[in-house]
Amino acid sequence: MNSIRPYLVRALYEWIIENHCTPYMLVNSTFPKVDVPQSSAIDGQIVLNISTNAVRYLHIGNEAVSFEGCFSGVPHKLFVPIRAILGIYIRENSYGMLFDLELPFEDNESIRSKDSDNLSIPKSKLSHQNDGPSLKVIRPNFKIVK
Fold first, then answer.
1. Which domain of life does this protein belong to (predicted)?
2. Each residue of 55-88: b (16+ CB within 10 Å) or e?
3. pLDDT over threshold 60, residue 69
């Protein structure tokens, strides 16, 4: 069965855009094949502004999200495997969804059952500035949207 994650990411992205809000994506920057500016990551995580004003050529596929964006005025091509996405949420009110941490192994279930206590998302303190995906220190406030 296909993963539900890419469908949820696309649906939440569309919902956020239709409500004229700013979509932010929380990413595990240490996941294999993630190509993001590591200098902007904190505690193995990075928050990316994926709004239409902040990125170009956004593609949310079943295997990965790719786009072009600027960090400190320098353009970058970014690539994020779907399994590396930890959440997508609205910048303005923190409504959104967090996903389970995925391991870079095909056999996630056997590893998850052995090591389930070690699979929590680090409690990084993230914030955002208006000039693109950069970070300051505050704690995010996620709310469950039903």
1. Bacteria
2. beebebeeebbbbebebeeeebebebbbbbbbbb
3. yes
